[in-house]
Amino acid sequence: MGIITPKPTLPETGFVRLSNIIGDAKADPPIPAIIPVSRSTWLEGVKNGRYPRPVKLGPRIAAWRVSDIRDLISHGINGRNGSDAEEQKANVK
């Protein structure tokens, strides 16, 4: 019998940590990625405004609102603050 990997899921409300968003293959059991990007890509995207900003829950704890992650998924990653693809097309012309 093969290895069964769980489907990535989000809670209905609340907050999720970064490992729940981008996954963690080293965790036991492994956490599947909801948005399959590297940690550095995610943090750069937060800095550039492509991904939502975290909420500080403590001095060393940051988490993201589930509602922000759901919006990101439903509008597409490029759909935040206007479509990057549409902006690139406009700049080419």
Could you explain the architecture of this structure?
The protein has 4 helices and 3 strands; from the N terminus they run βααββαα. The protein is an alpha+beta fold and 93 residues long. The protein has one domain (15-92). Strands 1-3-2 form a 3-stranded antiparallel beta sheet.
Number of strand segments: 3
Strand residue content:
5-15%
How far is the N terminus from the C terminus?
Answer: 55 Å
Counting structural domains, the number is 1
The Cα radius of gyration reads: 15 Å
How many H/I helices? 4
Topology:
Blueprint: E1 15-16, H1 18-22, H2 39-48, E2 55-58, E3 61-65, H3 66-75, H4 84-92
Antiparallel strand pairs: 1-3, 2-3
Give a quick set of tags describing it.
93 residues, three-stranded antiparallel sheet, globular, disordered C terminus
Short description:
With 93 residues, the protein is an alpha+beta fold. The protein has four helices and three strands. The protein is globular.
